[in-house]
Amino acid sequence: MRLPANGNRMKYIDEYRDKDLILKMAGLIKKSASRNYTFMEVCGGHTAAIHRFGIPSLLPENIRLISGPGCPVCVTATDYIDKAIVLAETKDAIIATFGDLMRVPGSESSLEKKKAEGADIRVLFSGLDALEIAEVNPDRRVIFLGIGFETTAPGTAVALMQARGKRLRNFFLLSAHKVMPPAMRAVIKDGMKIDGFICPGHVATITGSSAFDFIPREYKKACVVTGFEPLDIMQAILMLIHQVNSELPTLEIQYKRAVTPDGNRIAQDNLLRVFVHNDTEWRGFGIIPLSGLKPGPGFGEFDAEKVFNPSVRESRSNPVCICGEVLRGVKTPSECPLFATACTPLSPEGACMVSNEGACNTFYKYRPDG
Amino acid sequence: MDEFITLNHGSGGKHSQKLIKDVFLGRFGIEEPATDSALLATGDSGRASLAFTTDSYVVDPLFFPGGNIGKLAICGTINDLAVAGADPEYIAASFIIEEGFPLADLERIVDSMADEALKAGVRIVTGDTKVVGKGKCDKIFITTTGTGFLRPRREQISKGGNVREGDRLIVNGPLGNHAVAVLGARNNLSFVSGVTSDCGSLNGLIKNILESCNEIHFMRDLTRGGLAAVLNELKGMIRKGIMINEEAVPVDEPVKGLCEVLGFDPFSLANEGKILVVAGEEEYLKVLDIMLSHPAGAGSSVIGEITRENPDFVLLNTVAGGRRIIEMPAGLQLPRIC
Q: Hey, are the CB atoms on B324 and A51 less than 8 Å from each other?
C-alpha cells in the first residue's frame, strides 16, 4: 500500500483539533442543551485537556463540568508520601519516582526537599527505568514509587515480572497503584448530583469499556468513554446530553479508535498475575474497598511495604485545604481559601495543586479571563 | 533552617524569579526590572551606552544535535546582548573543568566557541581556567561574560517601556527544539531523533531589524521558561493585555508529539536561537519581512497582539477555538538544558 504524500498523512492529533468542526459541535451542544447538566470528567487527563483547550468557554452556561478522582498524584494519601520519605532516608536507598510526586507535600517534608538535603531520589519515565537503575547499582536498594491507575500499573507489572526473571534482590515497589471503577462507585454513593460521566479513555483501553457498565445499569447515569482531544470531548458532551434528554442512560464509546468493550487482555493478564486488590486510602474518600493494587503471591519479596515496613506517625495536612472535596466533585478549586494565594504550584499545600492533571493546578494555569 | 535550593530554582520560572528577588537584587542594590543585560553609562553623557551580561552553562549532555556546551556559551551571551539592543563586541570565557576530562573533548568545545565567535563577529578576549577534583563538578561548566555598545535610542527595548496597544508579537521560528534535542540526546529517545537544537547567534538577524525599523518596542530571547515565561515577564512590565493565537505559534511535529507523550508544554520549553519581538502596528509587517529574509528567521510568525482589554493577563485563543490564560511556568520542566 502506498502511503499518502507527507502533507496528507493522518497524524491523529490535528484532525481532532479542527476548529471549524469543534465550533460546529459547540453549536449542536447549545441547541440540544435544554436543561441544566452536570457532567464529571473522572480522569485528570481530561481535566487538563478541557482547560488547556479552553473548552468551558465554548459551552453554554447550563452545562457544568466538574473534575473527579482521576489524577493519581492527587488521590494518593499523605501517608504514602510520608512512607516514601522514610524509605528515602534508609541506608543505601535509591528512590525512583515519576516527577509529579516530587513536590507533593507530606506531613513534614516532600521528596523534593529530601533530594535537596542529599537523599538519592531519581526522576524517571517508567518502572523499567527503575529496574535498570537496580541492575547497575547491585549494592544499593532501589525503591520504585509505583503510582497510577490501570494505565500505568501494567508497566509496573512487567517490571516486577522482569525483576523476578532476573532474580534481582535489590528492586522494590512501594505501590500506590489503584483501580478506577470502585472510586467512581464511591463518587456516586457520595450523593453528588451528577447527570453523567466523561469516562476515562486511557483506563478503558486497558480495562475495556465494560468496566463501566455498572454505572448506567445500577445507577442510571449517562456514560461516554472519551478521547483526549478537544473534538473528542465536545462530541462526548453532546452524546451525554442526548442520553440525558432521552432518559436512556447507557454506556457509549466515543473513543472508538482506541477503546473496545474487552480492552487489552495481555495487560489485564499481567495485572492479575502480579497484583492482588486491597483496601486502600484515597485522598478525600478514605478507604475504598478493593481499590488498590499490591504485589500478590510470588511477588511479596518486591513489596517495599512488606520488606521495609516503613513506620510513620499519623499523617497531617493543612486543615483548610479542600483537595478532598475537589476530588469528590463537591467543590471547585476556586472555592478554596488557599487557592492561588497560600497554595500555588510554587508552594503547594495540597496534592491537587502539584500534578499537571490536578484540578487545582489546571485551574491555576489556565483559568479563563480571571 | 529548613529551606534549601532545589532544582526548581534553576528553572527560569517562578522559583528562579523569587530566588533572584529575595536573595540577590536587594543585597546587590540592583533595580527592577532585572534584565539579562545591564545597560551602563560611560563617560560624562549619563546616557546608557554599554550593555554588559554574564551567563553560566551546565548543559548535560555536553554534545547534542545542533551544538555543544561551547557553542551554547557563545550564542547565549551574544543573544543576551543583542536583544538588549546592543552590538555584541567582546566576550570573556571561564572554564571549570573536572579532573580526568578528555583533552580532545575540550578542544572540540573550544573550537566551536572560536567558530561561533568568528561567525557572529565577536572576539573572545580573556578568560580563566580552574580544574577541580574528580566528582567535584560534572565534566565541564563554562561561564561567558560579554559586552557591546548599545545602539542609540534603544534603551527601552529590554524593559518594554514603549510597548503600546496594537503592537504585534513576532517569534522567529518553531519553539522547543533545543529542549527536546537535549532531552533526546540525554535519554536516547529514539522518537525525537531528527530534532536539532536551534542553538545559534541572533545578532545578525537583530542588527537587520534594528537598522531598518524604529518601532521595535521589546525583544527577549526565549531561553529557560520559554515563551510562557517571557510573555508573563513582559505582562508584568507593561500592565497591558497580551493576546496570543495558538494556531500562529510555530511548533515542529516531533516536538509537538513529544509534548503530547510526556505532558510538556511547548510554550514553556527552552530555546537557544529564538526571540520574541514586539513591533509597532505600523511597522510589524516590515519587521516580519526582514526576519523572514534572514536564515535565522525563516520560520517567523506573528503570534499575537498587545491589547487594551484584559490588562494583566496573557490570554491564548486555543487551536480549538476556546480561550484560556498562559501562566508563568512554575517549577521545572527539564533540568540542565543550558
A: yes
Query: Could you read off the pLDDT of B102-150 as tens digits, one per residue?
Result: 999 999 999 999 999 999 999 999 999 999 999 999 999 999 999 999 9
Q: Does domain A74-180+263-308 have CATH number 3.40.50.11740?
A: yes
A365 touches chain B (CB under 8 A): yes
pLDDT at B46: 76
Choose the closest CB to A346 out of B15, B187, B316. Answer: B15
Strand extents, DSSP E, B151-234: 168-171, 216-221
Name the pTM for this structure: 0.86
Q: Smallest Cβ distance to A344: which of B310, B321, B330?
A: B330
User: How many CB atoms sit inside 10 A of residue A192's CB?
Assistant: 14
- Give B245's strand partners: B317
Q: Do domains A17-72+186-253 and A74-180+263-308 have the same CATH topology?
A: yes
Do A176 and A145 form a contact (C-beta atoms < 8 A)?
Answer: yes
Mean pLDDT of chain B: 92
Q: What is the CATH number of domain A17-72+186-253?
A: 3.40.50.11750
Res B15: pLDDT: 79
Residue among B18, B256, B324 whose CB faces A366 most closely: B324
Does the distance separating the beta carbons of B323 and A57 come in below 8 Å? yes
CA-nearest residue to B260 within chain A is: A13
SS3 category, B42: coil
Q: How many CB atoms lie within 10 A of CB A23?
A: 14
User: Chain A: residue nearest B19 by CA?
Assistant: A346
Q: Where are the domains of chain B?
A: 35-150, 168-325
Radius of gyration of chain B (CA): 19
For the cut 70, the answer to whether the pLDDT of residue B1 exceeds it is: no
Would the CB atoms of B323 and A346 count as touching at under 8 Å?
no
Task: Give the span between the Cα atoms of B272 and B70, in whole angstroms.
Answer: 13
Q: What would the grid cell of residue A145 be? A: 514509587
Determine the Cα–Cα distance for residues A219 and A210; give it in Å rounded to an integer. 15
* Dihedral pair phi/psi, residue B244, rounded to 5°: -115, 140
Same-fold call for B35-150 versus B168-325: no
> At residue A103, does pLDDT exceed 90?
no
pLDDT at B200 over 50: yes
User: CB–CB of A216/A223 below 8 Å?
Assistant: yes
CATH code given to domain B35-150: 3.30.1330.10
Q: Which CATH architecture has domain B168-325?
A: Alpha-Beta Complex (3.90)
Res B257: pLDDT: 85
So what's the pLDDT on residue B335?
64
Question: A212-221, B119-128, B190-199, B247-256: which range is least confident on average?
Answer: B190-199
Inform me whether the C-beta atom of residue B49 falls under 8 Å from chain A C-beta atoms: no
Task: State the complex-level ipTM.
Answer: 0.80
Give the one of B260, B325, B331 whose C-beta lies nearest to A368's C-beta. B325
Query: How far off is chain A from B179, nearest CA to CA, in Å?
Result: 17
Q: What is the mean pLDDT of residues A334-360?
A: 90
Interchain contact B331–A (C-beta under 8 A): yes
Per-domain residue ranges of chain A: 17-72+186-253, 74-180+263-308, 323-365
Quick check: bond before B61 cis, omega within 30? yes
Q: What is the pLDDT at residue B32?
A: 76
pLDDT digits 0-9 by tens, B254-276? 898 888 877 789 999 999 999 99
On whether the CB atoms of residues B181 and B337 are closer than 8 A, the answer is: no
Q: What is the dihedral of CA B184, B185, B187, B192, to 10 degrees?
A: 20
pLDDT at A352: 93
Q: In what order do the strands lie in the sheet with A121-123?
A: A121-123, A93-97, A141-148, A171-177
Q: What is the mean pLDDT of residues A219-244?
A: 97
